[in-house]
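Lab notebook page, bench 4
Experiment: in silico fold of construct C2
Operator: M.H.
Input chain length: 68 residues
Purpose: comparison with the prior construct
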Amino acid sequence: MALGDCWKQLCWFYYQYLLVTALYMLEPWERTVFNSLLISVAGMAVYTGYVFMPQHIMAILHYFEVVQ
């Protein structure tokens, strides 16, 4: 029963996502292209943050002389 409730909640979140972004009026293939691009851009942003943020944080800490 809990798995069914979890699936219902997930479907409801997806439906809300479709409504908020107005994707409900696109055809399925257009929705797939949009979602693929969105996931790609979000993935690149996460990767870039993972790779470059430690360097920037260390540079800031060195600038403010928190780390020697």
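Observations: The two ends are 56 Å apart (CA to CA). Residues 1-64 form one domain.
Next step: discuss at group meeting.
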